[in-house]
Request: fold
Amino acid sequence: MGALKLRSRLMSFVRNSDGAAAVEEQSDGVLVIENGKITAVMDASDFEVKGNALSECEDLRSCIIFPGFIDTHVHMPQLGILASYSDQLLDWLERYAFPAETAFCDPAFAAAQAEHFLHRIIALGTTCAQVFTTVHAHSCESLFSAAETKNMALVAGKVMMDRNAPEQLTQPPVPCARDCEELINRWHGKGRARYALTPRFAITSSDEQLALCGELLQGHTDVLLQTHLSENLQEIAEVGRLFPHARDYLDVYEGHGLNCSDATFAHSIHLSSNERARLLDAGAKIAFCPSSNLFLGSGFLDIQSIPRSHLSIASDVGGGTGLSMLHTCVEAYKVAQAQGQRFHPFEAFYAITAGNASTLGLADEIGQLKSGLSADLVVFDPTKPSQLAGRLGTCVDLTEELFAIMMLSDDRSIRRCYISGELVYEGTNQTWA
Ligand SMILES: [Zn+2]
Reply:
């Protein structure tokens, strides 16, 4: 098959040696894609100098091509409960999240929802995610299968719960660990799939289950771990009651070897300085889920207290209020503002591309427009919606442009998505705004 050549404005995000996020831009660039990988990124003028004809390229100069966006924490079965009116975390889990996850007992429903979930995230420019499925092994299986048909980089795990949840959503520790191991053996490293061990949180796992999770993590050194930590004050009090021997919330995980560089802890809002220091020392990552933290009234993450290399950004749907990573960055900006902190648009775009790729250990595969990486791309149409187009007309520099894109874009702005060099989504040409 011949190479795919796209001519467009290209933007990719890097971290400078001084630690600041920066943009690498070709205002008129060419991206060459072969066998699913980016094989060249260059200015259109250089492309011609090398003896190529620009007429070979598809002309997308009205668009911007970004690396595909990455979400480090999202719940596949909770898409249907977006916008559910409730009290805070524990009430919301009981009233909405657990019933929604119980519906996944049905394998046919789970399979249909897995497809639907991937379509929804891709339509918003997300080409890779780390995903909670449900306690049912078939829900995880379905999601991996659906991602495999798109040759999509996906990190996922079946949820581990053995108490404090509806009976249909719990499973004794030993059969649960056996199911996890089977999923790891079948999927981890198959194509672009990676497995993440997924104990929901300390409240719904006994020490025995967390111990088995730790053994699985040790036995499969490149497998990831995803869970929740220190999200809500009531939750933290309940963890203290359930684990009276633990010195704090992190200690519950730490005691079983789960505080490690393969771990992503969602939220981590209310950590003590000692917990934070231990988490960072272990090389673990925090998934900042601003729309969820605002929606569930969980609190404001102090992002200045966390080195950027340990901080990823995530939608946390359905506690989060939307799957769009750009929307998530808007909420991150507001959380920073509310604390008198800054969240620069370069940091935002870096986070949802190269930064989140690093968190998942996938920086050699995704996150930038760079030769050798997978061609997972968003073709962004800055003419939609019209509010964005109008604002871009008055922007004076890249900071203003990217900030406007982050603030004012919506699903109409996502013109196309490519995964492994294949066109997997083409947006409709709605012109109303
Ligand atoms: Zn979550």
Remarks:
- The chain is about 35% helix and 25% strand.
- The pocket of zinc ion is lined by residues 73, 75, 228, 266, 316, 319 (CB under 6 Å).
- The mean pLDDT is 96.
- The first strand starts at residue 4 and ends at 15.
